Amino acid sequence: MSKLKLYCFRGCKLAAVVALQLFLLLGYAFAQTNITGKVTDTKGEPIPGVSVRVKGAQTATSTDTNGKYVISASPTSVLVFTLVGSTPSEITVGNRTTVNVSLSESQNDLSDVVVIGYGTKKKIDLTGAVNSLQSEEITRARATGAQEAMQGRLPGVDIRRNSGKPGSDFSIEIRGANSITGSTQPLYVIDGIPVAQNGSATNPINDINPADIERIDVLKDVSSTAIYGSRGSNGVILVTTKRGSKGATKITYDAFIGIVNPYNLPPVMDGPTFVNYVRDYFYELPRATAIRNNQPIPTTPIADNTIFSATELSNIANGTYTDWIDLIKRNGISSNQNLSISGGDDKTNYFIAAGYQLYQGTMKAESTKKYTLKAGLDKTINKTFKAGASMYTTFADIHPSSGEAFRSAYRLRPTGSAYNADGSERFFAYESEAQITNPLFDFRNEIRQQQYLHVLPNVYAEANIIKGLKVRTSFSPDITIQKQGQFNDTFSKSRLGTLPNSASTAANQFVNYTWDNLLVYNNEIGKHKFDVTVGNSFEYHQQDFTSNSATGLPFNSLWYNLQSATTVNGIAPVITVGSGYSLQNITSVYGRANYTYNDKYLFTATFRADGNSIFAPGHKWGYFPSGAFAWIISKENFFSNVKAIDLLKLRLSYGKSGNASLRDPYFLPYVTQSKLNQTVYDFNGSGANGFAPAFGNQDLTWEKTDEYNLGLDMQMFKNRIGLQVDLYRKTTNGTVLSQRIPDANGYPNTTTNLGTIRNQGIEVGINTVNIRSDKFTWNTNFNFAINNNKLLELYGDGKDDIGNGFFIGQKSRVVYRYKITGVWQNEELAAAKSYGRIPGQYKIEDISGPNGVPDGKIDPSDRQIIGSDMPKWFGGLTSTMNYANFDFSITLYTRQGSYENSVFLEQVMNGDQTRARFGAFDRDYWTPTNPSNTWANTAIETDGDARTVAQFQNSSYTKISNMTLGYTLPRTMLNKVGIQGLRVYANAFNPFIFSKFVGWDPENPSGNSFLNQDFRTRTFMFGLTLTL
User: Fold this and answer.
1) What is the CATH number of the domain that holds 82?
2) Residue limits of the TonB-dependent receptor-like beta-barrel domain (predicted)?
3) Model pTM?
4) Which of the ends of the chain has fewer CB neighbours closer than 10 A, N or C?
5) What is the residue range of 49's domain?
6) Does the residue 475 lie in any domain?
């Protein structure tokens, strides 16, 4: 064979072999095989609904309720597993037919869907400032209300309890206070429906069982809130409750029970300390008078029998004292039970949940029972139509304890007695007392009850007209019925054992409804994305209320049968009746357009017009536009080499929003009649109700807020670190104030739009994935906010309003008092007397005189701004760890730089010593032999104005608000008994607080009054979550 033929033969042979191998390889590569597998979480639990797709192909499926899937793929295919809230995973098939994968949670998943006004948006596509809480974060806190679970977890959201009483709600301020006299509370939107705050007993979000909440989204900047127009300036809180989803029926039962323990009580004197204190007082009082008047100083102590009663002298001699605080407090009980059933198929989804909450308070006789019921059904009729309905119902039965009992316990002397020698209860603790009663009587004889029913149904229907175009209509009534009653027996504090009994009752009925109509268009053309929403809404708000009271009931029938009141012991009955009605209508049109180019440049334009019946013609309509722009810098080509940063986005927005919650929006159109039932005129010896002196203002309109927001979003190191920073400035014009007008008008003042307030600040949120492995994960969430509130203008004349405590250039809420700089000491006698003081009394800073130089006297000109209840900054830190089947989380919250009145000090440091109103406070007070520089001498009521200054305290605090340790039982163990999941946990709620504040609770330092106070509490609980 020639060499040429040989080479040809060998070459052809080699080519054939290569071709055969290539053919076999291609065949192998393109061979499609059914790949099966299971997707689980880090604890080994199956995850339903995980998207499974072949990378670069159209083939895709999802996992079933057991986390299993089947998909056709070749050995060279790459399977991509994705789920919102989890870190995606990519796995090459290879020569396997089974591919199992475990997904871990992601703190910073950009594909998360965020709820915004009248729609949803992916987090990465947001142009506004929005923060969110997921269901697990809410339920893990084990709070009795959603607002408690929110505290410390959302930057810029300041949350405080309104009262220490069971069932009390919270106040929330987002980015500061925008109003002086109007509401500073946000708008609450539940399942897309704006919900009214129907009276003080029911804050809308407090009525929702935390176990029924899917997520909470807080809209903060004007780009997000302007869609809500005249009610968006204070921010918007969107609550989305749970609904059913495709899958087998799922039954979940969650229950916990805990002990509620009162703690952090202000220190009070024990018996011997109090006895010495009273002796010091009566020894120091004449000495102080003598020193002040340059008279001989008495040195003889006052005899005990002149300052203590016979009962007290006997108790002192026997060493028998009464701890009145211990007499009224106890450990309470907190218990929750929740049951839900959900499921569905391709056409129908359903969700049903019932909850029961029991709270037995830390004061005797106080308790709260709350029942919730949620039902929802969503039905896909065909490819075009979908409809659904839901209803949320809350019923609460609240029995507040006697406020008088709480107050008396802190005002009674420990030298008194709660019981007589025969064991019966004493009405007065000692002979010299005729005003403060034994609190045990008030527990039994002052009976209070509050009940309310809140029903929130919703029905909707939507239709897909053409591809990308959808129309939706929804109708939502909002009905609340409240009633309350109070009965005071003759032997109660308010009746003092001599006056006839009394009773009162009140009822409120709120009927509201909202009808919304939406048209939504979504489309994508090449690099262009369009998302347009337009709509209109109609709202109706009606309130009816009645109130009745009577004295002299012939039998103790609580607050019923008031008509039977009669003369008792010669005292004629007093019967009062009141009623009222109000109506408000709101009509709105709104729209929002989102445009995205090349997934890098995002534009949002929003507009809303509101018409409100509470304003006069010509001022009924308000117009609220906004615009926003976001630039995803990290998607630019020049940024491709920056590997450490996964996302860098800049946000900018500007717009207008409003506030229609002016004093009392229901009665605003009837301002001249607002006190019709409270003003009595004398007509020939007979009283008649009439018009109160007020002057209507036909030009009154909304408070309007202009806001700028600059935001930055970053994700770094493969989404291990997430950063959100927002800078904002809000200016509210036309703040509603009561303005003095000339007397010639016949009225002293009128309500008008005059003031201007500015809020500006910074918010920072940082999420980190510190450790992420197969068995152990550790995530943290840190946030803080600084808000600077400033009053820019009041009445247009540049002058302060000292009488009402309003000062231009200062915060809109301030403490304006004398400033204490210490206590006058013995060696400062001459200097003290030059100010009309003596050693042992408070030093007041002298700041006023000619040319601003101290003038050597203390007068009202020396008052100054010493603080504000608005914090300088606040923030929180949450750390969550998971190891194998164990999980642990802890949340810390701090609020710094606030200064407020302590009701505790206000009461116990005010009044005369014969009732020991300030003797209960155990403090290091000044005496000639104990030169304290903190607390003045015992004869404090001679110290004039300084007495009230001492009650204002730094109310800053840091607390650990929540600690939870849980364990999820292995699935292999549970499968044997047909259980899908079982988690047991222990939780400590508000276990520790650190503060220098002197009072019951720095979170609620002032409350509404002494009568609304209660002990600060912590709760230790155990619970389980069972899924079938």
Assistant:
1) 2.60.40.1120
2) 480-990
3) 0.85
4) N
5) 31-102
6) no
